[in-house]
Specification:
This protein is an alpha/beta fold and 268 residues long. The protein is built from 10 helices and 5 strands; from the N terminus they run E-H-E-H-H-E-H-E-H-H-E-H-H-H-H. It is 47% helix and 9% strand. It has a 5-stranded parallel sheet, sandwiched between helices.
């Protein structure tokens, strides 16, 4: 329950997280399942619970902050530990895009866990988001970040910025790894060797041939099915040049320019 052998992967949707799952699933000692969607929510509940009620529980119920942390980490671990029951995995990778919102919280709950922030050029992410038909289940209307360029850019910039802050807060290269989509598809072996070095698992050539093995895809992961049947390619790098208008490019730059610059996607 300290998080040893546990890895949390997150990042803005449409950044390559499902691709990462396919690659990791091809490794004989790693289990990476579909998005759970529940882990970041529970971690954020721990944040609220600890900040708002921590002192009250210690004063009135003799429940110290350490006990609160342990109760939450135990609950989260029990959800995760059942996943690879029949595998030979040494690592469990929990891959949910919005994990990025709770990286800092999860780092406290699981002091030995590792974190992977998957990052892709925000302009390409915006171009991809604007082709989605994701709807709010409550209203039935499309989410703003799949219909509006400004909202899509703010969505990418906000999530990526939170991941950037988490890297600075955790401040430990043995625990936090940034994986650039562009590096992955343009120089797979070198990029994956660095990733598996971070994970402390031996590189296995089967991860390069991830497309030879089907994995069960769930929910929006299914939108990436066709891309997971082929070798890594730079085909979708720079798609924004033909998918976004000049005005849209300016909107992305003005809305999320700070993060584009922070991750070296633009000189501004």
């Amino acid at each position: 329950m300290t998080g040893k052998g546990l890895v949390f992967a997150g990042g803005a949707p449409r950044s390559g997280l499902t691709l990462l799952r396919a690659i990791l699933s091809a490794h004989p000692h790693i289990f990476c399942g579909p998005d759970t969607g529940i882990l970041p929510g529970l971690a954020l509940q721990w944040r609220a619970f600890s900040s708002q009620l921590g002192e009250l529980h210690e004063a009135h119920f003799a429940l110290a902050p350490q006990a609160v942390n342990k109760n939450f980490s135990t609950a989260l671990w029990k959800l995760l530990a059942k996943a690879p029951a029949t595998s030979q995995s040494r690592l469990i990778v929990e891959k949910t895009p919005l994990n990025v919102l709770a990286f800092q919280d999860l780092a406290i709950l699981f002091p030995n866990a590792k974190f992977i922030h998957v990052v892709r050029d925000g302009r390409d992410v915006v171009a991809s988001l604007l082709q989605r038909d994701w709807c709010n289940p409550t209203s039935g209307k499309p989410f703003p970040h799949v219909t509006d360029t400004t909202a899509a850019a703010a969505y990418w910039g906000g999530l990526t910025g939170i991941g950037f802050q988490a890297a600075q807060a955790i401040n430990n290269p043995k625990r936090f790894h940034v994986l650039h989509y562009e590096a992955l598809v343009s120089n797979p072996k070198k990029t994956l060797q660095a990733l598996f070095g971070f994970l402390e698992e031996p590189f296995d050539n089967r991860v390069i041939r991830f497309y030879e093995t089907d994995i069960p895809l769930v929910g929006v992961e299914q939108e990436s099915r066709s891309h997971l049947r082929h070798p890594l390619s730079t085909e979708r790098v720079g798609r924004w040049r033909t998918s976004l208008s000049q005005m849209q490019c300016e909107i992305v730059k003005n809305t999320a320019g700070e993060m584009l610059h922070a991750f070296h996607y633009t000189k501004h």
